[in-house]
Specification:
Elements: H1 7-11, H2 23-37, H3 43-47, H4 52-71, H5 75-87, H6 106-120, H7 131-147, H8 155-160, H9 169-182, H10 190-204, H11 211-225, H12 235-243, H13 248-255, E1 260-269, E2 273-278, E3 284-288, E4 304-312, E5 315-325, H14 329-336, H15 339-343, H16 346-350, H17 355-369, H18 383-398, H19 402-414
Antiparallel strand pairs: 1-2, 1-4, 2-3, 4-5
Length: 419
């Protein structure tokens, strides 16, 4: 006898805790899906990969796909559109001439089963194109086709994945969090990764009074840097696609900067902005006071601030945690000599120069230096000499004059980066 799926299993994949009026309908549908995937032919195969609890979640997961299509929340359709732009076909592995975009397809379901099985567990890798995936896709599609004309929209779910055009940075960040950490498609992907990182923080810092700060910083870091397993996209890229090009916020998401986390010097403020300087690079920023309630505590020029900032709609916003310390000359020197800290703002220089031409020139020089190959096999004790030799070769290709070389070295030392 197949055991029933109950509401707690269904709510695992929902972005809310209070039941909507349609949840009982989709819970019942999940049980129908479970019956169809656990027929005599497929039950043993599924149990070789996942347990009974996970089979319940898989049934709900596939039903969430159906609910997504019916309700128009645009999560699955966003994946299909992006994949088609990139690879000229709607899905990886599964496809065919009879594929109907923005409708339910057996190929969608087969892919989602494959994706689910490979994300919820990592002990076995399930190959696509297996017969049981195709057959289960067909079996589940039969359930959905019978309900296609009658399935209700989940209005609460629709509202959850909408965003007002007047949204500020924190609204936008919260929207990215919803997609990455509360949507059904990424529940065992980026959401599971966040939970694992938070458990690790709690285990390592359970007795630390700053544990909430660590958790806040960890979540902010994941929000801005997590790439989903499918398509390897950031939260801001998913947000732009789900909202659609007709929404003006879509372009704002795509233009959102990477998060800069590091040490800054306080340089003053006016009625709208706080002036800060990134210690490692010397780059100056205006931080909007709309995002920073601690500005009244900033009095001494060159006070050191460790914080995260993100550019949203041409303004820099505070994001993450904030720590303030008095001026420390040793810390300043260490930051100026830290290549990692300097690299945190490299993307700003990329916007001002044709970085692709520079990278192509470096690649061309490397191919010449390495006899036309992009790969070099070198004994460990010769790597430093190889890299040094390539850098000298590349610099020679630039044909810098002795004066230009001297000016570069002086500028580097003046900035505090000793070589």
């Amino acid at each position: 006898m197949i055991k029933k799926i109950y509401i707690d299993d269904w709510l695992v994949l929902k972005p809310y805790d209070i039941l909507s009026t349609t949840d009982s309908y989709y819970l019942k549908l999940s049980n129908e899906v479970k019956k169809n995937i656990l027929n005599d032919k497929h039950a043993q195969k599924l149990h070789s990969y996942i347990d009974d609890k996970e089979i319940n979640i898989l049934s709900c997961f596939l039903t969430c796909y159906f609910e997504d299509i019916i309700s128009g929340t645009n999560i699955w359709n966003s994946f299909v559109r992006i994949h088609k732009r990139l690879y000229k076909k709607p899905l990886p592995f599964f496809g065919g001439d009879n594929y109907c975009e923005e409708e339910i397809n057996s190929q969608d379901i087969s892919f989602l089963i494959w994706y689910f099985l490979n994300t919820i567990q990592d002990e076995k890798f399930i190959l696509p194109f297996q017969e049981f995936l195709i057959e289960m896709g067909d079996a589940v599609l039969e359930v959905f086709e019978n309900e296609w004309e009658y399935a209700p929209e989940n209005t609460r779910l629709i509202s959850f994945f909408q965003l007002d055009e007047t949204a500020d940075f924190y609204d936008a960040r919260n929207y990215m969090e919803k997609i990455l950490f509360k949507s059904y498609l990424f529940n065992y992907d980026t959401a599971d990764d966040l939970v694992s990182s938070e458990i690790e923080i709690i285990e390592n810092y359970s007795d630390d009074e700053n544990i909430s700060t660590f958790l806040t910083e960890g979540r902010d870091f994941k929000t801005h840097t997590s790439h989903t397993r499918i398509l390897s996209l950031l939260g801001k890229e998913w947000a732009a696609e789900i909202l659609g090009p007709q929404n003006p916020l879509s372009k704002s998401f795509l233009n959102m900067s990477p998060r800069v986390i590091g040490y800054f010097l306080y340089k003053g403020q006016d009625h709208t902005d706080i002036f800060i300087e990134h210690i490692a690079s010397g780059k100056k920023f205006k931080l909007t006071k709309k995002s920073f309630d601690h500005h009244k505590l900033l009095v001494e020029i060159d006070t050191i601030m460790r914080m995260g900032i993100v550019k949203w709609m041409d303004e820099w916003w505070f994001s993450g945690v904030y720590v303030q310390t008095p001026f420390d000359a040793d810390l300043v020197l260490d930051e100026k000599n830290s290549l990692t800290s300097r690299q945190a703002v490299n993307f700003l220089d990329h916007q001002k120069m044709n970085i692709n031409d520079i990278l192509q020139g470096q690649l061309d020089a490397f191919l010449e230096f390495n006899n036309g190959s992009q790969i070099a096999f070198i004994p460990c004790n010769q790597i430093d000499n190889f890299v040094d030799g390539y850098l000298k070769y590349y610099n020679a290709k630039l044909e810098l004059s002795a004066k230009e070389i001297l000016e570069t070295e002086e500028r580097t030392r003046r900035d505090g980066f000793w070589i």
